[in-house]
Amino acid sequence: MPLLSNCISWSQIVTWLCVVPSIQVMFVDYGDRAQMPTQNLRCLKQQHVELPAQAVRCALDGVEPPSGDTWSEEAVEAFEGIIFDLDLQAEVR
């Protein structure tokens, strides 16, 4: 798993789609995706390869898009705006 610098810190990523000179990545510990230049990639040191990801894929129980299989971009942005910077709690069943 490579590392990606966003000029502030380093993050674990999974490469999603490579279209040189940039690459679409998913931030393992946060779950979001971004387009980044390939020159910002670095290899993860072997001692860190086995560290578990901090993010867990999850969903809200009983909440589904009104039509289709995916939420619209507007709905995703509205939800992110509501929960941004909140401390959230989850129950794992």
What this model shows, in words?
The mean pLDDT is 78. Strand 3 (22-27) and strand 4 (33-37) form a beta hairpin. The protein is α+β, with helices and mostly antiparallel strands and 93 residues long. The protein has 1 helix and 5 strands, in the order βββββα. The chain has one helix spanning 73-83; strands at residues 3-5, 10-19, 22-27, 33-37, 41-42. The radius of gyration is 16 Å and the shape is globular. The chain has a 5-stranded antiparallel beta sheet with strand order 4-3-2-1-5, with no helix packed on it.
Give a short synopsis of this structure.
The chain is built from one helix and five strands, in the order βββββα. It is α+β, with helices and mostly antiparallel strands and 93 residues long.
Q: Helix count? A: 1
Largest sheet: number of strands, sense, barrel closure: 5 strands, antiparallel
Roughly what is the average pLDDT, rounded to an integer? 78
C-alpha-based Rg, rounded: 16 Å
Distance between the termini: 29 Å
Global shape: globular
CATH class: Mainly Beta
Beta-strand content bin: 25-35%
| Secondary-structure content class | alpha+beta
Order of helices and strands: EEEEEH
Number of strands: 5
User: What percentage of residues falls in helices of 4 or more residues?
Assistant: 10-25%
Number of domains: 1
